[in-house]
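Weekly puzzle thread! Below is a chain. First person to post its structure in token form gets bragging rights.
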Amino acid sequence: MARTKKVKMAGRFKARYGLRIRRSLVEIEVLQRQKYTCKRCGKKAVKRVGTAIWECKSCGYKFAGGAYIPVTSASKIVEQAINKGE
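Winning reply:
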């Protein structure tokens, strides 16, 4: 698999689609492939299972989140509103 300094894992597209698009794709893919901390157990073991589906490999907690990151800005606002009401 060809990788370059400029576009890293988007090197699989070679010279197609343009540099700007391939760079933005790399940013998104880096975010979605990294591990996140679990809300339930606190371990850094949450990985993306499918589109907007996230699962903790440690405790098995499965939840819906954003397409590329588990917690979106909209969900943060909703959680704040819920916590304010309590």
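Puzzle host: Confirmed. Bonus trivia for everyone else. The two ends are 52 Å apart (CA to CA).
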